[in-house]
Structures are given as structure tokens and as C-alpha cells.
Write a structure and sequence with these properties.
This protein is of the alpha/beta class and 430 residues long. It is built from 15 helices and 17 strands.
């Protein structure tokens, strides 16, 4: 068993038990807790299991286009990511969307679960608005016996017109709008093909939505902020805390990936500066929690890691499927009608299409390769129970391959997360 010493050796994380204990109790604990080890489950996902699992798909994502109105500096489709496609002028026709929706309906129509999310993704999905509009109306009719069909869209909000606005509001779309914070941040990274910044047009269109329906704006419009480490996190937090238009809206953070990309070669950053910025933000958040002061949306977004580590430490088993979905949660249908496990994986792992349906043998090979990769590389790792692994970082050139860079980074993040967990408990934050 591997032991991880934390906080100047005052505490120990026991990987086989997925527990943090006081270092002074190590010998006593190990003597009396031999039957409390985390159980390892070596699952074998065969074709029949996959066929049963796809009936639980809860989200269908239609990639209406592979083109975009912006050319964001950090975009995974912008040419700096080794295994991702480039932006191209491909659009989905309605026949492809219709066949995809029909196929999914036939898969799920007899299940007990009576809800479904239909999402629109790109590129910029509104660049193919006609198909969005038709797919919405078709879904409402096709899935009318499904109790709760909801619509979602990720959009950069740069090409909104009155017709699009009405469709989004009247169909109660859940919107994730890409906005990275203050004007200088947005205009540095989220730019049009000619290099112009997009802040003014995005905020203008957000105001139009609020003027059209303030209740809808506050309840259904969220902000998707991509954080690039060469810019100060403090500026982002201050903007969303004080901006009159957006301070009440939910905020979600994602971070510019560092794997298989040359992005940060062009935009270098200081680890110490980034760490200091997050430390300042986290200190302020912890003080508010300790003093029972309600967090504002941007603070709640930054504090999600507190609860995540708690959930990981509650796990009592470890499986070779790790954290990846087994084709049972969402499905991306790309603009050409091919099936993919989600919107984040590269396009080198399709497993069927809207004309021929699922390729279950291909699906079995993909999940089998992933499970073997986890078994061979992660089963003895000290962080196996708290490391987040899925297909995405291991999906290379059409094969599942272990990523040493990802592993090293995740180990560092896991240890840091454990130490923060201890500090938060001592301070009474959780």
C-alpha cells in the first residue's frame, strides 16, 4: 500500500482505504481496519451491457456546424491542439438531424426514464440556425410522449438576431454563453477572424435577452468562462462580482487545457503568479463560508472543488472504468451524422452514424482498450480513487494510449486537493 504524507507529515492519505488519517494513528488504524479496504471492481463491458446502457442516454448533442464566427486564441479547433480537428465549413443538414433524433427515439422510447436533453453545439451552432429551429420543432413532436424534453445550447452570442432570440426564449433554452470576464480578457482571446474583440457584441446581445425576458435571463442564461493562465484570475472574479448585467447569473469555469497543445508556448505564464491569484480568491471564499455569508455565483463556481474532493473521498470502490461514461449518458452526433461519446473527445473515435446506427463492436473495443489502460497504469496508483480519468486525455490518433503528462499533472492536483481538504476541515469551511 502506498502512503501519501500531507501537511508536513501530520496527516496520511491511505490509497487502499481512500481515507485521510492523523499520522499518529497510522499503526493503530492499519492493525484494526484490514477489512475496510476499498474494493476493486474489474468490470467487463460487453456488447450486451452496452446495448442495455445506451437506453439511459440522457443528452443528445447535435453539432450543427464545425465552423464558428470567432477564432478564439485557445480554441481546441484552432490548430494548436495536436489531436483535434480544425474549424471547417461543414454544416449539418436537417435530414441528418432528423435521422439521429429518430434513431435515439427508437432506443429510448420504452424506458422508464422520461426526460431528455437535446443540445446544440458547434463551432457556433447559431450559424446553422435553420437546422436548430427545425430540430427543435421536430423534437417537440417526436418526443411528445417523453415527459420532459429540455433544450440546451453553447453559444458565443455574436450573431443573435430577433428570430433566433424568440426561438431561444419561447423554447426555454438553457444557454451557456461564452464570456471570459472583463473586456480586456474577452478581447484578448475571443476574437473575430480579423482580430477584433467580441466583448461589446456579446454583452449587447445579453442585454437584448434580458430586455426581452428578465426572468428567463436570470434563470436560464449562464456564463461559460474559459480561464487562460496568462491573465489574472482576480480580474475575472471582480468582473462577475460587480457587473450590473451579469452579477446574478450562474458562472461555470473551464481551464485552457495544457495537454497536446502549443498554446502556452505563445502565451506563457508564471505558476507562482497564478497560484497567488487563486490563493487570494480561495482565502476570501473560505472566510465567507466560515462566517456563513452567502457566496455569489462566481464564488460558488470557484468553490466546487471543495465538494468534489469530499465526494471522491466517500468512494468505497475503484473500477477499471474509472470516471468515463460507458456510452450511457450523452451522445454527440457530428455535422456529418457520426456518433461520438461526447463533445470534448476528438473526432478519431466514432462508433456508428445516423444511417447505420451504433457499431457495438467498435464501442466494445473502445471501452475495452480504456479499461485495460486503467488496469495496467492506474490500479496501483496512490491516487486511483480520487483521480478523474475518462477517454479524453488518453484518446490519441485513433487509439487509447496512456498519457504521462496528464498523469503527472493529475498526481500534483490530487495531492494539492487533499491538503486543501484537510485545511478546509481544520478551518471549519466544510
Amino acid at each position: 500500500m502506498k502512503l501519501v504524507y500531507l501537511n508536513d507529515n501530520k496527516h496520511i492519505y491511505l490509497s487502499d482505504y481512500n481515507l485521510i488519517i492523523n499520522a499518529e494513528l497510522k499503526d493503530y488504524f492499519l492493525e484494526h481496519a484490514k477489512d475496510k479496504k476499498v474494493k476493486f471492481t474489474n468490470r467487463r463491458i460487453d456488447i450486451e451491457t452496452i446495448k442495455h446502457g445506451v437506453r439511459d442516454i440522457g443528452q443528445v448533442i447535435l453539432q450543427t456546424t464545425q465552423d464558428c464566427s470567432l477564432r478564439c486564441r485557445y480554441c481546441v479547433y484552432g490548430g494548436t491542439y495536436k489531436y483535434q480537428r480544425d474549424l471547417v465549413k461543414k454544416i449539418m443538414d436537417f435530414e441528418t438531424a432528423r435521422r439521429g433524433l429518430d434513431y435515439i427515439y427508437d432506443i429510448i422510447k420504452d424506458r422508464d426514464k422520461k426526460d431528455l436533453a437535446v443540445s446544440f453545439y458547434g463551432g457556433e451552432p447559431l450559424m446553422n440556425y435553420d437546422v436548430v429551429e427545425k430540430a427543435v420543432e421536430y423534437s417537440k413532436e417526436k418526443f411528445k410522449d417523453i415527459r420532459d424534453v429540455k433544450f440546451f445550447m453553447t453559444t458565443n452570442m455574436t450573431i443573435l438576431d430577433d428570430r433566433m432570440l424568440e426561438t431561444l426564449v419561447t423554447n426555454d433554452f438553457n444557454l451557456s454563453v461564452s464570456l471570459d470576464g472583463p473586456k480586456d480578457h474577452q478581447d484578448a482571446k475571443r476574437v473575430f477572424p480579423d482580430g477584433r474583440g467580441s466583448f461589446d457584441i456579446v454583452t449587447k446581445n445579453l442585454r437584448r435577452i434580458k430586455e426581452r425576458d428578465e426572468k428567463y435571463f436570470s434563470e436560464k442564461v449562464g456564463i461559460e468562462t474559459v480561464y487562460s493562465k496568462d491573465l489574472p484570475i482576480e480580474n475575472v472574479v471582480e468582473f462577475f462580482a460587480t457587473d450590473e448585467l451579469l452579477k446574478g447569473n450562474r458562472v461555470m469555469f473551464s481551464f485552457v487545457d495544457e495537454y497536446d497543445t502549443s498554446y502556452y508556448e505563445k502565451y506563457p505564464y508564471s505558476e507562482d503568479v497564478v497560484a497567488a491569484g487563486f490563493k487570494k480568491m480561495n482565502t476570501a471564499i473560505r472566510e465567507k463560508i466560515k462566517n456563513e455569508v452567502e457566496l455569489i455565483p462566481v464564488e460558488r463556481a470557484l468553490s466546487t472543488s471543495y465538494g468534489r474532493m469530499k465526494r471522491y473521498l466517500e468512494a468505497r470502490n475503484f473500477s477499471n472504468t474509472a470516471n468515463t461514461c460507458v456510452f450511457d449518458s450523452k451522445l454527440l452526433i457530428d455535422s456529418e451524422g457520426r456518433f461520438h461519446v461526447c463533445e470534448k473527445i476528438n473526432d478519431q473515435f466514432p462508433f456508428g452514424d445516423v444511417w447505420n446506427g451504433f457499431d457495438f463492436e467498435r464501442m466494445e473495443r473502445i471501452i475495452g482498450d480504456f479499461c485495460r489502460t486503467v488496469e495496467e497504469n492506474c490500479s496501483e496508483c496512490e491516487y486511483k480513487c480520487i483521480c478523474f480519468r475518462c477517454f479524453i486525455p488518453f484518446a490519441k490518433e485513433g487509439i487509447i494510449r496512456f498519457d504521462d503528462h496528464f498523469c503527472k499533472e493529475m498526481k500534483e492536483n490530487c495531492k494539492e486537493g487533499l491538503e486543501k481538504r484537510i485545511a478546509n476541515e481544520i478551518e471549519g469551511v466544510i
